[in-house]
Amino acid sequence: MAAAVSASASVSVWVPVAAALLLLLLLGPAPSLGVSFSLAPNNRKCLREEIHKDVLVTGDYQISDQPGLSAHLKVTDSSGHILYSKEDATKGKFAFTTDDYDMFEICFESKLPPGHFRVPDQVVTLNTKHGVEAKSYEDIAKAEKLKPLEVELRRLEDLSESIVNDFAYMKQREEEMRDTNESTSARVLYFSIFSMFCLVGLATWQVFYLRRFFKAKKLIE
């Protein structure tokens, strides 16, 4: 009897954990996909993405080597603030944390000195991650000495927080849009009323003016 109770208690403990792990697999972010493109000499290509506030962003890049060509990498926000910059970039990593919801831009620029002949395009490979994807849970597990199950639960907690923040942002945007629509509707209503009074006033003035004009011409009594 005691063994049965113990087994039942063990099952009841593992069921929520298994459900949490299943939820993590279903709602967890998809593996990040790298972007690869060609960069012609003396050309510039940029990638843009909108990212929420207080989000960790990491990136790995690799640029093929071509004789005489050099590439410059720059990461900026919409205000032009430089978050990362690298001259003669070939391979490396970058990371930053966003201060506010903004549009961020990653630009690669290829430079060919004058007098050089035409050379093949450089191939740029970029892999960016942000939010839960950007965190290294292996390092967290080593630093805090967490078990594999505890690491997965930590990841699930971070993912849940990210989802809650996304919903909160969507709710905030919906409230802002509703306030904007209500304000616009009120302004249109007031303008319509003002226009109506102006038209009524103009029509009344025209009636009196024409009446005086016709009386002056003795066309009416």
Give the proportion of residues in helices.
40-55%
Highest CATH level, the class of the largest domain:
Mainly Beta
What is the distance, rounded to the nearest whole angstrom, between the alpha carbons of the first and last residues?
116 Å
Structural class: alpha+beta
Strand content: 25-35%
Q: pLDDT average, as an integer? A: 80
SSE arrangement, N to C? HEEEEEEEEHH
Predict the CATH topology of the largest domain.
Answer: Jelly Rolls
Strand order of the largest sheet: 1-8-3-6
Secondary structure tally, helices: 3
Number of strands: 8
**Rg, nearest Å:** 32 Å
Silhouette: elongated
CATH architecture title of the largest domain = Sandwich
**How many individual domains?**
2
User: What is the CATH homologous superfamily assignment of the largest domain?
Assistant: GOLD domain
Largest sheet entry: 4 strands, antiparallel
In short:
The chain is an alpha+beta fold and 221 residues long. Helix content is 47%, strand content 27%.
